[in-house]
């Protein structure tokens, strides 16, 4: 008996060894055939299971092989490398890093030309939908499908993303920013608050609930909006409505927080295990499922009653399209079942919630760290919108262009460049067809089933695409890793080349200087700035996200300034007795702490702070600043 176990084990080991070696040899041969330099790794680093066990195989690999085989390529096998290492691996190994494992070929690229080519040839380079299983929990949707199904989903979902709805988002973002800042002023204890991330998430969630379902959610103490759709109004209450144990916000918040346990836990265990996290997850999911059924029924009733104007409401318009008369629908070949409608509603939450919140969160942190930029932002807000104007009167069509071209847009763009919520956009070649790409004018053939990572963090720091100045905050030679919104007013590369070396020493940081500034604004090289991806599968919510961030930043900084909290080191009394140089020293300490925390951001679905990391801030009325009004860096 023992000998037969030994025999079977021996045979299995031999079989795995054979598969391993032959797979590696085959893939190395394929890598050679591309003509690109390649790097061999022992295991497919992006496979789920291998990611979990990375803490074993990665050190083992470094232990048993000579350093020259792993010292460069090991970086791109590590967790969070896209953000932690930024452009460095590409500076060492080239803008296209071809990685070979026994089971896969992977190409990570930071080359604007290659990114542009891959993103624009949608059918040649589809999405690896197998990586998106986690997003199908409530049904297939526009993010998780490919081919003809994707075209149908995109066709049905995209009409909601129009300018009329952008204007509604603009309004909603102003109301929400009002609710949030009032809430901060009321609750900041000891003069500071620690919940920027949580609160920007609530703000984004409330807006996306409006976008997705026509729900008008409010902040504690904020009056319910009077034009709220009466049928949906009961769901906006701060108490759970009848039949529910959580409010709608709590249920969606709970789902997003417990996404992984919900996906990975078998139903039986989820329903019975006495584990707190699982119980919370189950409660959130049950509530959410019920809400979705109820919302769907409401929308179906609206459509049956023939109510045409469904307003800002993606679910309503999906229902309208899919429940219309058979003849209308048949022609376009458009039809979604209930599961797909609910799946698409969910994906709007997932895609549009944390991403947008992160951009607002990091923008506020960086503005506190860059007092001069904060003041320029406020100058532009004063010029475009008026220092004393009532935000309720801000007109979307009239103002949005100027806002986007000003420091408001520059702050947003720079946060998207330095801290993109999505750090890598995955693509692949199909399982049946090789594809050719052009690198430096030379054609290279990528075999079928090659994984392609368009590296968002690295392309936006590629020195070939981004004009740089020496860093003012580190000893680095260039400022490409620094948050410098003023770079969006530097001359574009093509202009810079024309002007040759005689760039003015003194730069005009004035920001927005009238309606026509496009000539003086920086335009990134195509493919070098892809926070929303590029090409036909680029972000559907891009316009909404931009409008939301612009409006919220404008609201907040018209009335307030944001400073790093210093109460950990000095009381208000102590600060008031300090002279200028003592204040400078103190504030520099706070900035340094903030920068260290920001540098510890990690990507788990999106790039944000984890492990309870946060930066405390203080919201102050303009004119009552203690630091950012004079401090320059
Ligand atoms: C700053 C905020 C946002 C960022 C940085 C962002 C980024 C992205 C990126 C990188 C993709 C491509 C993903 C991939 O190829 O795997 C994407 C796709 C998508 N985003 Fe966004 N997004 C943001 C906000 C939003 C919002 C507010 C919504 C909706 C309300 C939204 C809806 C979508 C949808 C539906 C897709 C899939 C499009 C398709 O596959 O056809 N996003 N987004
Ligand atoms: C809805 O369509 C999907 C295909 O996207 C299918 O897998 C699912 O079973 C359908 N659900 C229902 C309830 O018909
Ligand atoms: C920010 O980027 C967007 C899109 O790339 C562009 O339209 C806008 O003009 C940029 N804003 C500034 C100030 O450069
Ligand atoms: C500020 O106060 C500190 C400590 O009292 C003192 O050493 C320093 O000289 C003062 N600096 C100025 C510019 O007054």
Short description, anyone?
The protein has helices at 2-34, 48-52, 54-64, 67-70, 81-84, 88-93, 112-120, 147-157, 163-187, 196-213, 230-233, 248-257, 259-264, 267-272, 276-304, 314-323, 326-332, 338-369, 371-385, 396-405, 407-418, 456-459, 493-499, 542-559, 572-577, 580-599; strands at 38-40, 96-100, 105-109, 424-428, 435-439, 442-446, 450-455, 560-564, 602-604, 606-608, 617-621. With 633 residues, it is of the alpha+beta class. The protein is globular, with a radius of gyration of 26 Å.
Written description of the protein model:
The chain has 633 residues and is of the alpha+beta class. The protein has a domain at 152-351: Orthogonal Bundle (Cytochrome p450), CATH 1.10.630.10. The protein has helices spanning 2-34, 48-52, 54-64, 67-70, 81-84, 88-93, 112-120, 147-157, 163-187, 196-213, 230-233, 248-257, 259-264, 267-272, 276-304, 314-323, 326-332, 338-369, 371-385, 396-405, 407-418, 456-459, 493-499, 542-559, 572-577, 580-599; strands at 38-40, 96-100, 105-109, 424-428, 435-439, 442-446, 450-455, 560-564, 602-604, 606-608, 617-621. A five-stranded mixed sheet has the order 1-2-3-7-4. Mean pLDDT is 89; it is low at 498-511. The site of one 2-acetamido-2-deoxy-beta-D-glucopyranose has 3 residues, from helix 26.
